[in-house]
Amino acid sequence: MRTIGIILIVFFSIKIYAQEPSKRPLQIDDFAGWKTLVNTLISNNGKYISFELNPERGDGNLILKHNNKSDTIPRGNHAEFGPENDYLVFQIKQPDDTIRKAKRDKVQKDKMPKDSIGILVFNQYRLVKFPKVKSFQIPEEKGYWVAFTTESEPAKKDTTEKAKNKKAHKQPGDNLVLFEIQSADTIVYPNVTEYNYSKKGDAIYFVQQYKDSVNTRSVLNVFDTRNGSKKVLFASEGWIEMATPGESGSKYAFLFSQDTIKEKVYALYFGTSEISAEKIVDGYTQGIPVGWTPSNNGRIYFSEDGLKLYFGTAESPEPEPKDTLLDEDKPKLDIWNWKDLELQPQQKLEADKENKRTYLAVYHVDLKRFIQLADLNVKQVFTIQKGNGNAGLGYDETPYLRASNWTGKSDRDFYLVDFKSGIKRQMVTEKSYVRLSPDGKYIIWYEPADSSYYSKSTDINDLETHSLTKVIPVNFYDEENDRPMDPSPYGIAGWSEDDRFVYIYDRYDIWKIDPSGVRVPVCVTKAFGRRNSTRLRYIKLDRDLEYIPSNEPILLSAIDERTMSQGFFSARLNTVKDPELLMMDKYWFDGVNKAKEADKIIWTKQSVSEFPNLWSSNLKFDNQEKLSNANPQQKEFNWATAELVKWNSFSGEELKGILYKPENFDPNKKYPMLVYFYERNSEYLYRHQYPYPSHSTINKTFYASNGYLVFVPDITYKVGYPGQSAFNAIVSGTQYLIDKYSFVDKNKIGLQGQSWGGYQTAYLVTQTDIYAAAMAGAPVSNMTSAYGGIRWGTGLSRMFQYEHTQSRIGGTLWEKPLLYIENSPLFYAPKVNTPLLIMHNDEDTAVPWYQGIEFFVALRRLNKPVWMLSYNGELHNLRSSSWADRVDLSKRMFQFFNHYLKGKPAPEWMEKGVPATEKGENLGY
């Protein structure tokens, strides 16, 4: 009987297993419904949490979590909690179908359906909506009113006899609506051209404009949110712009001009709740450069204490002379001069920014003193202490701009700028990593020459330079740097109170260092990170805090370089001991955000098989709660798994990589394999990749779901030999997997890479026939022609890229011509036996389009199987908005690899091509 029972149990189990429905592979049509989780928020008291779930195509939802409940708001987005935790305000998009229909009907942009605003008041759980909303604002404190603008309704036509004799003038501005949370009352002000809430919530400043046939009249108003009253502060014929309150709302400033021409000259006005607005700075103010005035292209803001008013100045605009020439009579050219600091393409790209450039100035409110801070050399000046500081850091990049085109460096000369006098004192020269301490007591910089940090007091009586890290027996530079350039530092975690200590990262740990050089440096994490190959990094939970509290526990993120596990530790920086483990697991953690007034945090957790859903907990990661389930449909699909693999390259170096397998993997079967790469990716072992149409690369989850193995090897480089370095890493890793695992079909292995990965793909197919098919996105094929080209997205020369950065040649074309040729796939085109698919788009602003063309026409002439996809008007990677192009690329890549690696029939576009005469009609799938 016992034996029979066991047999029955086994039979029953087998029967149940056999009846369990098998999971299906992902299809490209499944992409549209996959959701992403964005814009996560937690209220100040930690009781409310919101986030958006948006599909790749279609309408998303705003989700609100509170008291173990969940509310869904269709099409809600860009939400904000009221500072008193009493409401949620958000925009409501128009339905996707409505927008698409309007586009099909060719509705003009200004007449497209408009978004609405929703305000959900918690105590009554009342939802109020308003249509045609353009923007909204709430303050950081005392948000008793919500301010928003709505589109003005067209004025009713006046048919009276008197109106017929008057020329109609469209009034400027929108309706400003002020909504009181508790009473639900609204106040509407028309013709509002701008509005600004004070940070502490006491006041809303807004400008109204009224126009007739001759004049424009501007009125500056303040609305007192405490008593609901409005007061006119300033009114005059002319234009008010950039009306800005101080933090409390009792002080304000604005620009004003009475010029009627387009090129207006402005003056800066200042006022308080007790003092009427008066002009404080114009083109005649003492200390302003000759011909300069306050500019409406800058930004106006007060220091936190209200004692300083910052704004931008610039050369006064000149009226444009009347153009009497015909367009055909004007020469159209760019003049390239060898003395130019920037190449013409860069100048043209930045022309608008330069035309609108402003130079920081400050007005000392109590002293009634104007000081110009930035100038034509020191164009950038940065404030400290939320603007309260009496000094700032400025820099001059002019001496190094011309050389940066081939050095790739961002060197600058740094100055300490005194805000009371405007005097600039040069502190360091030809540096790129320089910081001013939060209280302004020290300048600290990283010196590439000896890979060390140095400091200098800002006290004029102390000129001594202090070496901070030179004697510490660990490296503070990127230990894995393999580019022909100075390695970057790991950076500064922050400062202690009163600038007493600076906290500096090495590869793994945090060091507490006295910037005065008196006290001995200590590793506050007690070398725990280095002993355990675990990188520890500070997480700033209070965004308003300018220093790291030394006597309170702080949160550290952690990643174990051996296993790629991640997690969190707690530490105190006033002690030297091992940090306290809070959580460590085989996941990727991200997006930590703390409630301002409670010890509650939200964060995301993801792995290859687990979408990055939102979780909450306390600061110890106790009482964890999962808040979202973005894609429950995932359980229906055959997914991917991932594992870390290690092998020795052909040069003997141990390397890491990731091997993705189908969820229903069977070790007794043979699988085709795709090899994808860029530089180093093993750190992303636990990153999730949801299914979405390609911007340029394969979707690893999608291919694994469809029965592919996907191998992602790390690559390390030898200067001068980037191509051979890629070969050593990628081919050795491929061969390792072939030799180790019988389930890898050695005759069905493909390559795919984009940009730098595209170059490496193109190079590899000239060096080996181990791969049955390859896809190269935007590849450099000829380094000799690419070297002298332009990165059109920035206007920069490509020289620095080859000499010092990613391409890693380590010298000029004329110094090392053979290395440029040796690393160029084009010169080895006759050796290619691997079918190659290229994508190179005609508006690529990173890698010149002709690089793909050069390789394509060479292989075509040699009768090699090659195809090139060139998406019209697309950049280096397909834009997120280009849904049709991304789906198309996903289909064609999938068809290409399925044909060569799975034996599927070749589609028409591969067999016959698609003639230009059939473009847009025949896709050739």
Structure write-up:
The protein is built from 16 helices and 54 strands. Residues 1-19 have low confidence and may be disordered. Among the domains are: 31-153 and 169-275, 6 Propeller (Neuraminidase), CATH 2.120.10; 641-783 and 828-910, Alpha/Beta hydrolase fold, catalytic domain (Rossmann fold), CATH 3.40.50. Helix 9 crosses helix 10. The strands form twelve sheets. An eight-stranded mixed sheet has the order 45-46-48-47-49-50-53-54, with helices on both faces. The protein has a seven-stranded antiparallel sheet with strand order 9-10-11-12-13-14-15, with no helix packed on it. Strands 20, 21, 22, 23 and 24 form a five-stranded antiparallel sheet that branches. The relative contact order is 0.06. Helices cover 15% and strands 34% of the residues. The two termini are 62 Å apart. By secondary structure, it is of the alpha+beta class. The chain is globular and about 85 Å long.
Helix content: 10-25%
CATH T-level topology of the domain at 31-153 and 169-275: Neuraminidase
Shape: globular
Overall mean pLDDT: 95
* Cα Rg: 32 Å
Helical element count?
16
Strand order of the largest sheet: 45-46-48-47-49-50-53-54
**Number of E strands:** 54
Overall CATH architecture of the domain at 31-153 and 169-275: 6 Propeller
- Going by helix content, strand content and strand pairing, the class is alpha+beta
CATH class designation of the domain at 31-153 and 169-275: Mainly Beta
User: Which ranges are low-confidence, i.e. pLDDT below 50, for 5 or more consecutive residues?
Assistant: 1-19
In percent, how much strand structure appears in the residues?
25-35%
Q: Give the N-to-C terminal Cα separation.
A: 62 Å
Biggest sheet overview: 8 strands, mixed
